[in-house]
Structure formats: structure tokens, C-alpha cells
Amino acid sequence: MVTRHAVGTLQPRALAAMPGDSQVSPVPSSVHEALLDPHWRRAMEEEYAALLANQTWDLVPRPPGSNIVIGKWIWTHKRRADGTLERYKARWVLRGFTQRPGVDYDETFSPMVKPATVRTVLSLTLTCGWPVHQLDVKNAFLHGALTETVYCSQPAGFVDSSCPDMVCRLNKSLYGLKQPP
In 3D, which of 173, 35, 178 has the Cα closest to residue 97? Predict the structure, then answer.
């Protein structure tokens, strides 16, 4: 197994300048700023297209008295092990703290793998000389179906012009929700 430490590359610091960063667009501080930059706009369009392709929500008229969970865009640079820029990443996340218990969600427990289990499996693979592979499933988190009815605002910068007053009724989970996917 090859690690960053073994090849002499440490985890890049979030604020430290990286080699070749002069051509890298800085992380935007607003949706308007992100939409003006072609790199961040493309990342946002990819995220939005993935959400639509996954049928994450249906646009519906706002039900009276319903709680509308608001969202925001999160932007990050994804880097390779050597610190060079791999891609621009944008995520539409919901602000779960605006959800109401008993109305928007009931259960918040989500089973997780313990770090000790991961270390044990990695130790076993190293001892047996097995290869270790990593994969990234785009939007894997978003495949979880929701049992509760949750409404959220349309993504900023991607509001449907034919129905700007409608809200999204979620069919699938989004980042930031209180309930597990």
C-alpha cells in the first residue's frame, strides 16, 4: 500500500498555496461570484444535473403551513495525493438545523463503520498482501429514499424560471438533512 507519507507528500493545507495554484480559481464566497467563474459554474451545473438525473425532488406548489428547509452551495477544490488540483466540486446542501423534530424528521440514527473496524481490515489486507483499491461513487449519499415529506427551496442560481414560486418536495436524501439516508 502506498501512502502519502511513504511518497513524501503530506496532506495539503486548506489555505496553503499549492504548486500551480496561480491558475486555480479561488473558492467563491457567494453564488453570484461562483456563477461568474466558468470552473465553479461547471461544477455547480454538474451537481444540479446529477440531482435532476437522480430524481431527487419534484417541484410542487408551496403547501400552506409547511416548513421549507433552506439550502446553500458548498465549494471545494478536490486535490490528488501530490496536491495538484483534480477538479472543482460544488455541493447543494440543506441546512438541517431549520428542520422541525416530529414534523420533518423522526429518526436521526445512522449506522456507521467504526474506525477500529477500518483499521483492522486494512491491517489484514496489508498482512495478507492483498491489493487495496479506492473508488468514488458520485452522489452515493443521495440514493437514500426518504420516508418523511420534506420541502426545500430551489437551488440558488438554478431556480426554474417557469415556476419560481414552487418548492422542491424531496424524494431522496440530500446532504445536511437530520434524518439518515
Answer: 178
Angle at alpha carbon of residue 73, lines to 46 and 69, rounded to 5°: 115
CA angle 7, 11, 15 (to 5 degrees): 140
Cβ partners under 8 Å of residue 44, min gap 6: 34, 35, 73, 90, 157, 158
CA angle in degrees (0–180, nearest 5) for 155-162-52: 45
Rg of the chain over Cα atoms, rounded to whole angstroms, equals 20
Task: Tell whether the model's pLDDT for residue 15 goes beyond 50.
Answer: no
19-53, pLDDT tens digit by residue?
A: 556 688 999 999 999 999 999 999 999 999 999 99
The overall pTM is greater than 0.90: no
The larger pLDDT score, comparing residue 177 to residue 143, is at 177
Residue carrying the nine cell digits 445512522: 110
- pLDDT at position 11 over 70: no
149 within 8 A of 168, measured Cβ to Cβ: no
Q: Please give the Cα distance from 139 to 147 (Å, whole number).
A: 19
Taking a C-beta distance cutoff of 8 angstroms, is the pair 67, 98 a contact?
Answer: yes
